[in-house]
């Protein structure tokens, strides 16, 4: 089992991409638990759990969570991070 807690949080975008590619190779055929605020870190995960106030409010794949649209917690987080990234 591989446990990653904010593994790329202190990295710039380029370094994050390099580390993420390396981690994806290491995670092959391994159960991995990833804690992340940067949602780009988890978009390729098989199962994503969205927490709010310590409780799971949504779970599913990246695409299934996005399909819930603007009322979904994950969709809202993706939208918020996208707007923050585009404003810098």
UniProtKB/TrEMBL annotation:
Keyword flag Transport: yes
Swiss-Prot/TrEMBL keywords: Glycoprotein, Repeat, Transport
Keyword check for ATP-binding: no
Superkingdom as given in the UniProt entry: Eukaryota
Family listed: Belongs to the ABC transporter superfamily. ABCB family. Multidrug resistance exporter (TC 3.A.1.201) subfamily.
PANTHER family tied to this protein: ABC TRANSPORTER DOMAIN-CONTAINING PROTEIN
The protein, known as: ABC transporter domain-containing protein
Organism: Gossypium harknessii
Phylogenetic lineage: Eukaryota, Viridiplantae, Streptophyta, Embryophyta, Tracheophyta
